[in-house]
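Quarterly update from the structural biology core.
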Amino acid sequence: MNTHDAELNLSRPAHNGVYFVDEDDLDSMAAAAVREELSVIRVDLAHCHGKADLLRRMATALPLPADFGHNWDALADCLRDPVWQ
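Predicted structure, tokenized:
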């Protein structure tokens, strides 16, 4: 990955999504995010099976509120409005 590739450009919503990233690039991407004052949380999804498992891992990795509902709506609410941090 070159320096240009690691720069964050959030002005193009059409490019939002989930991307597979080579492990060698994670540190440089995290550094670029931190420079933009974004939070970086890594969640190990190896051997993750299903929604309940994913939500448990997210709840463990993120400092979610104690009353986190373990459903898609609750996760979306927490990610959109991180006042709980």
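The chain has a mean pLDDT of 81.
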